[in-house]
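User: quick one, fold this
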Amino acid sequence: MLEKKVDEKIEDLLSEALRHQHGNGAFNFCFENSLLTDAMMIVLIRMLKLPDKSLLDALVKRLLFKQSKEGYWKLYEDDRGNLSATVQAYHSLLYSGRMTCKHSEMKKAEHYIKKWGGIERVDSMTSIFLALNGHLNWPHLFHIPMLFLLIPKASPVSFNDLSSYARAHFAPILLCQDLRYSIKTRWTPDLTHLIMEDRSMKEDIKQAWTAMSQFPSNQLYKARKRAEQYMLQRIESDGTLMNYATATFFMIYAMLALGYEKHAPSIIRAFNGLKGMLCDSNSHLQNSPSTIWDTALLSYTIQEAGLVHAVPSTRAANHYLVRHQQTKYGDWAITREGIAPGGWGFSEGNTTHPDVDDTTVALRALKDMKNESSRWHDGVSWLLAMQNQDGGWPAFEPDRQAFLLKDLPIDGARSSFPDDSSADLTGRTVEFLCNYAELNRNHPSIRKGTNWLIRNQESDGSWRGRWGICYIYGTWAALTALKAAGYPSDFTPVRKGIQFLKKIQRYDGGWGESCQSDIQQKFVPLHVSTPSQTAWGVDALSVCKETGESLNRGVDYLLKKSYDMEERTYPTGAGLPGGFYIRYHSYEVIWPLLALSHYKKLQMQQ
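Assistant:
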């Protein structure tokens, strides 16, 4: 009876996945992130005087729908309100011209903003957003000089120490800061009533800026040109900067600061590129569409399910993936000279910015090519070269630890400035290399990777994930890696990881973890289970061959006919702790399908 239910659920999940496959083989799901991108898009439409009224109305309608009855906006369901998100939404709704301070929704938001200290208490990204639009003073909030870009790479600290994600944002932000650029239009709202603290510049910051202004003008010119060239050289064919919506937004302002006209071709191309990243009936701007990620994961997962009638689907998906393997050298080559390209990026429009996680999952999907194509081996070679010196794997580039820079007083610096090794990336890479590239734990890369995982296990037996929420995600990745490397279930780190998952299982058989875990850096339970987190728990137990009540209860949860809205929509993807979370619309399909497929294989082995 249970076997029949599992088979039926697998078929249901496959049918749902196939509804999202396009003619080019790609699977398209919405990458639903925090509302910052929507707020930015509203401002761009008005500021650039673009005739996109229907898009403006759709963005405004969605923002209003997301507002709580108390007047604030939040980043996830159990969030008790987020000041930065509320300021972003409040400002942009007023900027749209569709709302005024007299509307009850705006009055409630205004009350919340004042209650929590006003607009000067927002996070760094929102502060920059406000400075660009003339509401805050640049020197008061961002303390890194333009000449930072001229520091040689060999110095103890330089621009190249930052992660690629941070560099993409820093280059345009530093330009705007250095030129103290802001722009006001007839749509710009007055936010002075929301300034609750003294805005005057502190004396030490005044002195620092005075000192910086005394540098030779030719050096400042050189630094500005370097920042401009950095941006221009990384514009993708769709006009966006490295296929990030937020980086593209800052790039548009930097171009304006440098004297570009509002309707300059590069600015209009950038805006149109952003429009190409819309989803949810054009009411939400994705920061980086997840097409490669979703396509690779679904191809791999459907193959794991062993569904013969789905072969045409996976064949089409794999053709799409082969076409999008990257062949250009990116910034990763700075520290890895002599290594050929071979990775995959997250988004279809990303051609020079590959990442470790997308590469491992694309190679999993293409595993049948490994004996007949050098492209597969190019990917494996690139992946091995990305290993950090500490033995773990980063997201984008190796050895970008930003040791000195991550302690700067900027929100998110510790998470976004370095490209540190993480349990999820290290675990998934080790698991791939052992199960698909046929390396064993005596291989130097595997030995270093598993040692990193063992060293970085938490005292409660968990591992912290970086790109998913959070300790469930990291623990699943680490356990599947250690098992793939040949460690037995009674190996102490494996045993402790299994015990952690069993201990936190919810009464309904599922697993649920709050985004608060990402902030507090300890496991925080969620009041509901989620399909993706439950699937990670079930998959980890299946791989560890932990048959028994805990596994069966988890499977029962995944076999539910339907999930409550909150179970389905809770964000289980991570961007910036406390600032940016993601609901992958694909995850309620991908991870249950994978977990049930592995569970079915385990049952067949019994």
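User: anything notable?
Assistant: The longest strand covers residues 580-584.
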